[in-house]
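Bumping my old thread because nobody answered last time. Still need a sequence for this structure:
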């Protein structure tokens, strides 16, 4: 698909020039639009600057392997790497070798190259517009099973984007490299069907970007085993379709991507859900929960003045997964439980899933009525998937009757027990299953978005991604489960930076204090996490600062009064910031810009900001720099501008590095950029 620039100053039609190797004659004088020239060593596509775009060149060497080097103002901003265009055929990897011919016709530069597999060639087509070019390529002469691009990471400076990362160091649960090239990413199930929040979009310090337009599963690696390469492989032999953006700032690249996938039409969370925490039972109890425990949990929070808008009962309330009925032993009177929670001033919510376990009474009914996704290998039978709660089938949302049946069950449940909203969990599709009537992975993301949009998600959001439907729905995005240590807190921060800057502005960390069945968080981790979340758009809470259960021992953990006080203080600060945050929500609806963003989005010329992963801008006026370690102090980088130190009540001129800034547990470093939009409102909230 050809993607046209959204910017003004459309380029004039290119003058037709056709050239074939091995000619060494220079092309005629360039027209005002894109043009192609050649020298003894390279074929070069040039795109002139416009009022809104910096212009760029793409150079292809005549000798050696086929490669593309993208430059802006004479400096490389992105270059392909080893085996730049590679493919898998006959069970082995092959790649394009030397350029054999090129042509420039109707605004498209067509390149042909030999390959390492006899009798095959690669054809690549480069279609330029003002701020990007489309790169489409195919293998001719053999049916390939996978096609991939390779880039040298160093050619573009640091790399960002992607979403939640799988890494050898524990990602996405305890590790999220920032920048991506600072770690190693190895993700062979990178797909619209993935449980991880991912998008096929990457951007760089050099203000280049890459978008791979595919609905197929990808194998993505960045700096695998320290090789310095980014490999972006599509598990399909169909045409590889990519867009390379060339801009003046990373934020401009982000906006180009949003121009493709779309900005949110609305926010699914209300003002109150932004202002106050959601309390979910998962990390407090995991599956060892019942009516008595949930009510004591809510009562203790309420009695200690720990504010919130909802008590949400997570996993393990059903008699069997998929039955949509309360376990009568654990929940003898669910309506009374709901009524008591409402009486304390909270809404009541439930965790739900489309995954129906084989031992559920609803499973056979759904299978008999063809309400379940079919198996990809044998479409005559339901698809079964293994998950953390057993083996299940998945309700097929592409079947209108199945969807109506599922929603009918939800309505009965909610009406009977006074359930105000839902937390949808697990995926809406699995790669072991077959889509009905040609529906693809991205179609099921759309269908899941449409389903979830019918309910109050209570600030818990949902994990849909990849494609316009997910971006435009405006859901709050909750992270994948984190651990309960410092490493997970740091991962939660950099993961929010990653998710925000691939087009999901309404982010929250995983449950404050973490989860993942690890030992209960220490007092220090719990408090620091709450302080960190107070400077995020929403606060998503579970572990009670009053007391919790250590999942590894089953023993009660009591926190002291200071823990309760500091947690309450974080909630109060977030609520004071709510008017400012709500303004940022409205701005995101208008522009698509993220609310939580890395320093370099607002200060692109400040080189130091490109490696800062433990500070962020909350909108244009607030810089948050909480302590994410057990140390007694931290260094803080302030970009250019005049900054008001919220804690020390002083003004600092940036750029500046504040060395060993003291951070006792009672201090959460934050700064307001004086003169920025919203600064007065932020100062009022934070002074």
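Sorry it took so long. Here it is:
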């Amino acid at each position: 698909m050809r993607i046209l620039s959204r910017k003004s100053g459309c380029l004039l039609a290119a003058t037709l020039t056709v050239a074939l190797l091995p000619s060494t004659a220079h092309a005629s004088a360039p027209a005002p639009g894109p043009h192609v020239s050649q020298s003894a060593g390279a074929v070069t596509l040039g795109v002139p600057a416009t009022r809104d775009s910096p212009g760029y060149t793409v150079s292809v060497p005549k000798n050696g392997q086929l490669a593309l080097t993208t430059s802006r103002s004479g400096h490389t901003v992105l270059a392909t790497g080893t085996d730049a265009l590679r493919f898998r055929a006959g069970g082995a990897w092959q790649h394009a070798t030397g350029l054999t011919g090129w042509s420039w016709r109707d605004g498209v530069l067509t390149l042909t190259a030999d390959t390492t597999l006899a009798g095959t060639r690669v054809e690549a087509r480069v279609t330029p517009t003002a701020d990007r070019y489309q790169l489409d390529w195919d293998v001719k002469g053999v049916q390939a099973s996978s096609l991939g691009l390779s880039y040298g990471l160093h050619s573009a400076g640091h790399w960002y984007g992607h979403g939640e990362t799988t890494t050898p160091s524990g990602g996405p649960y305890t590790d999220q490299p920032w920048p991506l090239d600072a770690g190693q990413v190895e993700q062979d199930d990178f797909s619209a069907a993935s449980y991880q929040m991912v998008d096929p979009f990457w951007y760089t310090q050099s203000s280049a970007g890459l978008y791979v337009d595919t609905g197929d599963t990808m194998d993505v690696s960045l700096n695998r085993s320290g090789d310095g390469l980014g490999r972006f492989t599509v598990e399909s032999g169909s045409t590889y379709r990519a867009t390379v953006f060339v801009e003046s700032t990373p934020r401009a690249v982000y906006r180009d991507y949003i121009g493709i996938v779309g900005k949110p039409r609305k926010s699914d969370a209300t003002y109150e859900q932004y202002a106050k925490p959601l309390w979910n039972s998962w990390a407090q109890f995991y599956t060892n929960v019942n009516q008595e425990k949930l009510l004591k949990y809510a009562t203790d929070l309420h009695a200690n003045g720990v504010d919130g808008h909802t008590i949400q009962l997570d996993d393990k309330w059903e008699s069997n997964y998929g039955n949509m009925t309360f376990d009568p032993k654990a929940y003898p009177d669910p309506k009374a439980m709901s009524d008591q929670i409402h009486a304390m001033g909270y809404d009541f919510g439930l965790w739900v899933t489309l995954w129906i376990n084989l031992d559920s009474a609803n499973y056979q009914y759904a299978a008999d009525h063809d309400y379940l996704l079919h198996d990809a290998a044998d479409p005559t039978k339901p698809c079964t998937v293994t998950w953390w709660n057993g083996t299940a089938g998945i309700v097929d949302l592409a079947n209108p009757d199945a969807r109506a049946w599922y929603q009918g069950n939800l309505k009965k449940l909610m009406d009977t027990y006074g359930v105000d909203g839902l937390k949808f969990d697990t995926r809406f599709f699995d790669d072991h299953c077959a889509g009905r009537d040609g529906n693809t992975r991205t179609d099921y993301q759309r269908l899941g978005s449409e389903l979830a949009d019918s309910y109050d998600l209570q600030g818990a959001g949902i994990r849909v991604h990849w494609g316009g439907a997910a971006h435009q729905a405006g859901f709050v995005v909750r992270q994948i489960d984190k651990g309960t240590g410092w490493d997970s807190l740091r991962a939660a921060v950099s993961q929010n930076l990653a998710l925000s800057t691939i087009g999901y502005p309404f982010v929250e960390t995983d449950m404050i204090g973490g989860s993942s069945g690890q030992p209960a968080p220490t007092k220090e981790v719990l408090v620091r996490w709450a302080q960190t979340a107070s400077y995020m758009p929403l606060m998503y809470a579970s572990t009670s600062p009053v007391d919790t259960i250590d999942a590894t021992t089953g023993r009660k953990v009591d926190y002291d009064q200071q823990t309760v006080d500091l947690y309450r203080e974080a909630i109060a600060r977030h609520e004071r910031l709510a008017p400012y945050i709500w303004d940022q929500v409205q701005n995101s609806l208008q522009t698509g810009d993220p609310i939580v963003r890395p320093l370099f989005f607002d200060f692109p010329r400040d080189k130091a900001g490109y490696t800062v992963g433990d500070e962020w801008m909350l909108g244009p006026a607030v810089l948050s720099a909480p302590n994410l370690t057990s140390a007694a102090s931290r260094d803080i980088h302030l970009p250019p501008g005049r900054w008001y130190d919220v804690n020390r009540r002083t003004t600092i001129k940036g750029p500046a590095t504040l060395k060993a800034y003291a951070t006792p547990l009672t201090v959460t470093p934050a700064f307001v950029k004086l003169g920025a939009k919203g600064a007065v409102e932020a100062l009022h909230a934070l002074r």
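The CA atoms of residues 64 and 82 lie 11 Å apart. Let me know if any region looks off to you.
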